[in-house]
Structures are given as C-alpha cells and as structure tokens.
Inverse folding.
C-alpha cells in the first residue's frame, strides 16, 4: 500500500469521514487515494483559511476531527489564522501537511520553508513522519491527540516520498474509540471548595465556558445559582453554547473591559467552570488587563479540559437540588421589525425568524452585538463564536458546521470587513449545496477600529486615518461577489426588505447571502 | 513624541513613502500617526496577503522598501505566503507587526500568539523592540536591513504600549542613504575562472538570475555568449527581468525538470550569474532533484547578493568585447489572433498589444506558458515571476507594482485557481485607481495538479480526485466578482472577443479585468 493511502485508511479506521483541503503537488498521493478510500468525503476550498475554518466548524459540531490537507509551508501559513481560532476553541482538528520529499529538502527549491516553526504555535501536538511504514501509527497518534478532551489541534507533516512509497506489509488495525481524557473529570476538593464558597453567603459568580455550555451544564448551573442567589456569566467567546427556549439564558461577559468589570462588580467568589479568569481582549493605557475585581477569590471548579458540566451536576446532586428549579427561557415571540435597517432591527428580525435547531456562526462584531440578546428566546440553537479573535472565521466555520449537520439551518452573521478575509467560502457552500444563510452586516467600515482608537485615548481619527478605516469607496457589492462565487444573494436597505430576504432564505435549503446595508450612524 | 509617530518619522527620514496595511487595535497608534506624517501614503488592503504581496511588487520596481503594517500573529500569518515569495525574490520589504502591550502578553488573551516563531522563517532580519526610546533606531536598523543587496525582508515587532507611550526626547536624525552592500561586488578569481572556462573551447552556459537580468547585464551576457558561442539561460522564476525589443531575449529554464535537463544537455561549464544551480521545483520518483548534467563543472561568477551584471560587464571589458556584438531582439509585430480562445491565442494577442513600458505580473501557470515567448519581441517591459511558488502572488504584486510606477501599464496574468487566493486585491486597485489589467486564464481547474499527478506516476486521477482538482461546478464568474469589488470587467470566449477586451483595457488608465474563458483541452 502506498503511504498516501495508508494515512487515509488509518484515519478512516479511526472514524474520520471528512477532509477539507486545498492540495498541491506534495499531497497528490493523498488526493489520489481518495478514490481508493471513498468513505472519506473530500471537500475543496479555494483558500486554505477556508479549509481550516471549516474543519473547526465541523469539529465543534461533531466533537470529532475532520482531516485538513495543506500544501507545504505557504499552504499551512494561509490556514494558520483559523487554526489559531480552532486551538483557542479546543476543537479536535487533524492537519496533515505535505512537505517536499525528504531528499529534496536540502536543495532549497522555491517552496522550501520551515514548516515546523510555522506549525508549532497553532498545534497542540506536532509530529514529522520519518518512514512510510510509520504512517499508520503516526496518523492514529495524531487522531488520538485531537481527542484529548475537549479537543486539540494535531499536525502531522508527511514528506511526499513517504506518500508515494509502497509499503507492502501495511495493515490497518480496527480500533476501539477511547477519546483520551487525560485529566480527571474534576478535582474532588474543587467541588468542596466551590460548595463552601456558595454557602459563604458572600456574592458568587459562576463563569461558564467550554463544555460547561451544554444543556446539562446550563441546567445544573441555573439550579445552583438560584439556590444560592449566585450570578451566572458566560465566557466572552464560547466555542459553542446551547441556547434558546427551554434552556437557561446566560449573560455573556462583555468585550469591553469596563463593561466586563461592571458585570463582575461586587463578586467575592468567582467560580470558574470551563472558563479562564477574565482578561481584557486588548490592553489599554491605564486600564487593567486582569478583570477580576480586587478582593475577589477565584475558584476553579473544573477546567475546560476536565468535565465542567459534570462537575456542576455533581454539585447539584450533592446538594440535592430540585431539577425543576432551573430558570428556563420562555419563547420570546418577537415582532418583526419595520423602518430603518440598523443593528437593532437586524437583530429583531433574526430573533423573530431563527428556526429550531439553527447553528449561528457569529462574526458580526460591532454590528452584531444585539443579535445575541435578541435570540435568547428563539427556538433551541447553537451559538459559535470567534474564539481566537482572528477575523475571517465566520464564513468557513459556517461552512464546516453545515457539512457536519446537513439537516440544520446555519446562520452566518458576518461583518463586511471580516467577510472579505475568507469570502471564498461561499464557493464551497455552493459546490456542496450547503444550507447556510449569510447575513453581511454591511456598515462600510472597520467600525471597531474607530471605536478602539477613541478608547485607546487616540481621540477621533484624522482624515487620513479615518479613510484607512473606511471600507468605501468603492462600496463592496456582496450580491455581485456572492453571485460570482455561485451563491444566490439579495440586498436589504430597510427592515422590511431584510425580513423579506430572511424569510426567503430561511424557507430554502441552500446557500443564500443577504447584503444588509446598515444605516450609517 | 508617541512611539507610533516616531516609527513613521524615522522611516520617512529613510525615504519610506508607502505603507500597505490591514491594521488592528494593536497598531492603532501607527494608524493615528499617518495624519501627523502625511509623507507616507497608507494603502488599505482587505487581507494581509494583499498587503505583503503589494509591498513585494513595490519593492521589486523601486528597489526600496514599502512598509507593511500587520496585526499580531494571525495578521502576520495571513501575509506569510507572500512574504515567503518576497524573501525568495530578494525584495526590500519592511514589516512592522503590532503585538499586545508587553504587560498584557502573559494573560494569554485570545489573539496572543508566538509571533517570533511565525515571522522568522520568512524574515532575513528580525527584531522585537523593547523600549519606546529605541523605536527610531530599531526602525532605521530594520530599514537598513532591507537594503542589504539586492534586498531583504526585515520584520520588527512592536508592542502596543511602546507605540502609545510618549517619549519627549525623541529626535529623528536626517540620514544619508547608503544601501549596505555587505559582500564585494564580485570575486576577482571568479572572473578569471569564468574567462578560463569560456576560453576552454568546451560548451558553456551562462545562467542569469536576480540583478543580472537588467539591461547592462543582459547586454554584456549577450556579447560574451556571442564571442564564445556560449548559451544563455534565464533562471526559472526571476524576480524581475527586463525584456522586449532592443534587448537580448533569453530562453528561460523550464519548470519541468526533464525539459530543464534537455536545455542544459551537453553543457560542460555552467556559469552562475546571480542564479543558483538549477534544482527541480518538486521531487519526482526516480527523477533527479539536482539538474546540473553529470560531468558539468559549476562556476559562480557572482551571486545575486553581489553585482552579477557588473561582473558580466567587467568580463566584457576585460576581454575588450565590442558593445555592438550583442544580439538585440527585433520587434515581432505579431498579428492579432482569430478563432478559438486558447492559451496560444491569448498569448498572441498579448504579444501584439503589450504597450511600451508595461510591467507583467506573471501568475499564469499552465495556461500562461505561451505568453512569455509571445512577448519576447514586444516593446520594452519588465517581467515579474512567482519567485517562491506560493500562489496568490500575482494580483497583489501587480497592485504594488502599479503603486510604484503609476505611469506604466501593469498586466497581471492570472489563472483562475491562483486568482481566488488574493482576489481582494482588486478592491485596492479600484480604491487607488490603479492602471492594472488583469487577465484571468480561466480553465476551470487546477490543471497543473492533474498534470503533476500523471507526472508523479499516479496515472489519471479517479473520479473523486478529478472532481477535487476541478474548479467547476459552480463556475467562477470573475466579471461578477470584479464588479463586486469595484473593478469593471468583461468576458471573452473567442480570440476576437479577447482582442476587443484587451484593446479596451489597454486604452484606459484604470483597473480592468478580463475573464478569458479558455477552451477546455
């Protein structure tokens, strides 16, 4: 068996069924093997950032890794920003990078690069295969590395000669899946410490993140909070949060450090449940980076690498809390908006029309901030955030989530600036016939940077700086761009038009883009 | 003076007048300083790969660095592929990467990354500034590093707090420009060795590359070759070659190792003049990576880091060669093509219509191979290649070359697959009103990969692999995409239509895109 095929067969045995790729010559024996191992579905991306972001979306929804195949150092480089986001999301993701043949590397041919140096910052696990006969084991080791709970990015570098060499003795064992849970589910004394804090009578806040944001964690947290008059907050950028009618609704930690500090104000015990202690997204002159209030004690009930939802349930059971005491979000039954198209009316329309089982990929940035609140009482859905802050995630993430969950509607909230990073995603959505609605919150500017300039004490931008933060002229025409990439699209300039567009998009099962031209503020 | 402003003032003193950027919050004090230092023209890119590729194009044409400002690790990552190409091109290019504030980094906020590990593989010079008061010197050191002949990529990482801190004593010295030429122009004994080889009576080939490909080098090489019946070849992927009527025309070393070996067949002395000994672009089973024929002696007259054109002139002078003996390319006066639109008829049309002083950014790949030959007798022009093989260079490179040379027509030869890597470039071309004509050689596939699969012994791709190498369905509609990005565009499906489109595009001074739908072979 040639090495390229043995990698695919090994991963198939592990359960890998999807590959996002933009391959090159070094990976051609992996490409060729797709016809021999047809249980893996290869999905072509026009740019590597689409492939890595899609694998992140797929992994967040399925909790198992998709394979990503990338071409040498430059192909990897193009995918790094979304690997960064996936690493921050703790998504299981398996990256195979084709390198030059081992004996070719010393010749420093044009594409030769230091792949190791580029890959390591975004990989939790990294290995370079040395022999064709090791590829089955290496691929399986990489797969297992991705499943270290809750998920990891594993990168395997494979030289082209290893993939084209035939190793007659190759056998692929059948495997029992035992996602490795290296850490214990939680520490017993962390449970006791948390209960002690809750019983102290002092103000407690549960900060939920990572795997705590699934139903059982949310329900247990709500029971605990109600029992002890504690507050619950959701981390700023959750990888996946289950939300909507019938689940406890969470307030999310604000992007703005000042707001986050006011959310935490008065807290004497901050109990971390799958979340890290809150820090400011950026630093600002004379403002703290660490947002925990003075005099507040931080307790870690369970990290994201443990089982934070299970730990919350264990507390609830230990204390004998009544399952019926969780606060469940009632349906909001929002009215449809009319009038001007603003971030608020867009949010209202989405709150009214989001269907049961939707998946929201949220890269709405400044213009999207009202949608989260407006959808609290929408039907049950999952909410995926820009975990690593590297823009250009929303469209690929939506693409991969739709591949993972073809029967669910995916809504991608995008801003105009971020959308242009990985707009090529639309073509993959068209090619694969994915049920994704993209809403471009089009304000014709990098609004967040103007805001940040003022916040940083830089005042209003001068005319040159201001022009540099404007995305017009020329106006980006997302309807034309989407059509050019094979995706039908429509434009809305009023709330009524937006509602018509969104209803149309929600009624169909195929990719559609709405260019929502927001009123300039 | 705040640190952000002192960086800009220092670079202005050095002669920097152009900045390509997609900035973020960490760089906001550099952005703010643009209004205080208006001699630097900031140009916005919608994606970092556009900024780095444009800086490469600018640097190749002006021989001085443009400034590129990037945002943290992910912003850098998005620009790495074209930094790789720039490093291979030996382009002077200055990258400033904004990092989190020094005191913020330990908090591991979402965008925190190992910038150093990402930057070093594509940087010839790397430094992380430590104090605001060092920024003037650090920026000047970075600038000087870019000018180590013929050019280098220098990367300076500056933490946000250094840019917002005010350092009252900042002064920016005025500077004499002395591009550092670290190596000697050439080695005297290399001259003697070369002359000895030429006089040996054995078959000699001059392989020209890098700075040898300018007029004086070409003329001297032609005189030498004519005098000794030597052959001249041009390296496979020159950063910039001066070409056209009145200059010696060069045969270029082929991408295919087999062809390159036949070009070198019989050579007993390979004389390297600004080029490296030829190696295969990729490795192939049972084919050599090193392409120098057996029994051939390799002589280095001068490296690209020395003065290869000067060395050729020195030989010509030493030997007293008559300047009139160079072979000058006559005008080709090609007819306009008719009939089917194929790579050949596209090439013929461009050969007939390329205007005087054009700059060609060549990322035409498989479909573009005939254009080089067809333009040998076109009016004088410069030819820029994909030096590092990382696709997605052509459109940004054309953008930057046009910023550098606003009075010259830039022709960007693009293939459909490569174009989709950095298609955002078109928006910058529209915004800046650049005189760039983009020709998309649209064959609806990654044709080169099908070709490589066969070459690698993988035979014809199976149906799954074949689909993965097809860029259709859906067809990419580059007219729609260009229009959506603010660039006028037209489609051609016959040679006659292509000629009409190309004439129109050449007659105007603004960005235009031609979607050339090639017949499927």
């Amino acid at each position: 068996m040639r090495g390229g095929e043995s990698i695919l067969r090994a991963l198939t045995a592990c359960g890998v069924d999807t590959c996002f790729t933009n391959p090159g010559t070094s990976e051609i024996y992996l490409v060729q093997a797709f016809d021999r191992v047809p249980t893996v579905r290869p999905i072509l991306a026009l740019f590597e950032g689409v492939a890595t972001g899609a694998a992140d979306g797929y992994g967040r929804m399925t909790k198992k890794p998709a394979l990503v195949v990338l071409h040498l150092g430059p192909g990897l480089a193009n995918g790094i920003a979304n690997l960064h986001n996936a690493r921050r999301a703790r998504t299981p993701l398996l990256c195979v990078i084709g390198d030059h043949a081992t004996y070719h590397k010393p010749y420093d041919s044009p594409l030769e690069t230091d792949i190791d140096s580029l890959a390591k910052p975004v990989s939790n696990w990294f290995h370079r295969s040395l022999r064709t006969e090791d590829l089955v084991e290496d691929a399986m080791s990489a797969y297992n590395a991705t499943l270290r709970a809750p998920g990891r990015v594993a990168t395997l570098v494979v030289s082209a000669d290893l993939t084209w060499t035939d190793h007659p003795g190759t056998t692929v064992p059948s495997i029992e899946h035992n996602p490795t849970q290296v850490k214990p589910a939680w520490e017993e004394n962390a449970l006791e410490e948390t209960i002690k804090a809750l019983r102290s009578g002092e103000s407690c806040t549960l900060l939920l993140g990572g795997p705590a944001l699934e139903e059982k964690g949310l329900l247990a947290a709500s029971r605990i909070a109600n029992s002890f008059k504690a507050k619950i907050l959701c981390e700023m950028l959750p990888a996946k949060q289950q939300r909507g009618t019938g689940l406890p609704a969470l307030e999310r930690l604000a992007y703005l450090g000042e707001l986050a500090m006011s959310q935490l104000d008065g807290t004497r015990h901050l109990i971390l449940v799958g979340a890290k202690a809150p820090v400011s997204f950026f630093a600002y002159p004379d403002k703290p980076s660490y947002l925990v209030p003075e005099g507040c004690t931080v307790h870690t009930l369970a990290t994201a690498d443990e089982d934070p939802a299970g730990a919350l349930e264990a507390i609830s059971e230990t204390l004998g809390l009544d399952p019926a005491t969780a606060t469940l979000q009632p349906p909001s039954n929002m009215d449809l908006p009319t009038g001007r198209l603003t971030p608020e009316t867009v949010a209202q329309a989405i709150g009214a029309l989001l269907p049961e089982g939707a998946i929201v990929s949220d890269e709405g940035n400044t213009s999207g901030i009202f949608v989260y609140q407006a959808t609290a009482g929408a039907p049950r859905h999952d909410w995926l955030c820009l975990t690593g802050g590297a823009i250009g995630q929303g469209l690929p993430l939506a693409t991969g989530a739709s591949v993972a969950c073809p029967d669910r509607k995916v809504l991608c909230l995008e801003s105009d600036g971020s959308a242009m990073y990985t707009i090529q995603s639309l073509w993959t959505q068209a090619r694969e016939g994915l049920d994704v609605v993209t809403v471009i919150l089009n304000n014709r500017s990098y609004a967040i940077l103007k805001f940040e300039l003022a916040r940083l004490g830089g005042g209003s931008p001068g005319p040159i700086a201001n022009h540099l933060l404007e995305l017009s002229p020329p106006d980006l025409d997302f309807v034309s761009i989407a059509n050019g990439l094979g995706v039908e699209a429509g434009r809305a300039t009023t709330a009524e038009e937006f509602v018509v567009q969104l209803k149309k998009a929600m009624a169909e099962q195929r990719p559609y883009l709405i260019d929502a031209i927001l009123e300039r503020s």
